[in-house]
């Protein structure tokens, strides 16, 4: 599954290691606080005010740690355009990882209301996005939507039990060098999926740990090395013409989420094969 919308690279974004205030959010993503839908919407459009949803979720223990909104060509849509919030629940934060709800919405009809599941590793500040094991909740802007919105948050939150079970199972699975290479090769194909494209980097580079804690041969450590190297980029390689180049980070929000989810599903596939 994909996001219901797309975010261009270098969209306005704010991340923090503490809950964001409304004032902080407003400076980056003012569309979250639109109090009416864009004038282009018809009377059949059911307005889902993100600010009200955020207030309700805060009352239930969810707090925003990242916000983003897409760039716009027409200034009149800046206050209504597509936006994203990543929220953590107080009960889901521990010393190393925090489960997150990823909320996507707009007030100009360019996307439906959507919730996805994610995971944040404090060690590398790199958001993992789970695959199909956790609910992907979409609410269209029509009919009675208020109850669906809050229920969707808890549907995703309860699904984290399955995510944690998968993560714990991956930590118990040991991969030999050949299996790690197969996983890395498959991950490279996910990122560089253009037919006949020459891979700019090797499997060995993708498997290279960036910190001591990720050197393990278990599936969870292997997956995290691959995920971080592909998403953050910065690896030295060569293009199809043999020229030196450094791999680019995945900056687009939509591309980041899509690649993360595909990598998670790939790791779960390996888990099932080894079980």
UniProtKB/TrEMBL annotation:
It comes from the Eukaryota. It holds the Pfam family DUF932. InterPro entries: DUF932 (IPR026325). This is DUF945 domain-containing protein. It comes from Tilletia caries (wheat bunt fungus).
């Amino acid at each position: 599954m994909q996001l219901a919308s797309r975010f261009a690279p270098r969209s306005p974004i704010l991340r923090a290691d503490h809950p964001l205030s409304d004032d902080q959010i407003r400076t980056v993503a003012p569309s979250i606080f639109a109090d009416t839908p864009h004038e282009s919407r018809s009377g059949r459009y059911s307005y889902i005010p993100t600010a009200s949803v955020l207030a309700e979720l805060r009352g239930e223990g969810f707090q925003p740690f990242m916000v983003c909104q897409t760039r716009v060509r027409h200034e009149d849509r800046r206050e209504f355009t597509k936006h994203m919030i990543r929220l953590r629940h107080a009960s889901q934060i521990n010393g190393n990882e925090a489960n997150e709800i990823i909320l996507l919405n707009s007030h100009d009809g360019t996307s439906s209301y959507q919730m996805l599941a994610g995971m944040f590793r404090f060690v590398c500040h790199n958001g993992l996005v789970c695959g199909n094991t956790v609910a992907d909740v979409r609410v269209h802007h029509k009919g009675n939507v208020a109850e669906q919105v809050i229920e969707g948050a808890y549907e995703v939150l309860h699904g984290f039990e399955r995510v944690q079970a998968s993560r714990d199972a991956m930590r118990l699975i040991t991969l030999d060098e050949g299996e790690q290479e197969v996983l890395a090769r498959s991950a490279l194909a996910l990122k560089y999926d253009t037919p006949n494209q020459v891979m700019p980097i090797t499997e060995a580079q993708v498997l290279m740990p960036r910190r001591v804690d990720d050197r393990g041969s278990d599936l969870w450590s292997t997956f995290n090395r691959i995920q971080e190297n592909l998403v953050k980029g910065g690896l030295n390689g060569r293009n199809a013409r043999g020229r030196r180049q450094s791999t680019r980070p995945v900056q687009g929000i939509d591309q980041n989420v899509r690649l993360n989810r595909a990598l998670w599903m790939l790791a779960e596939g390996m888990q099932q094969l080894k079980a």
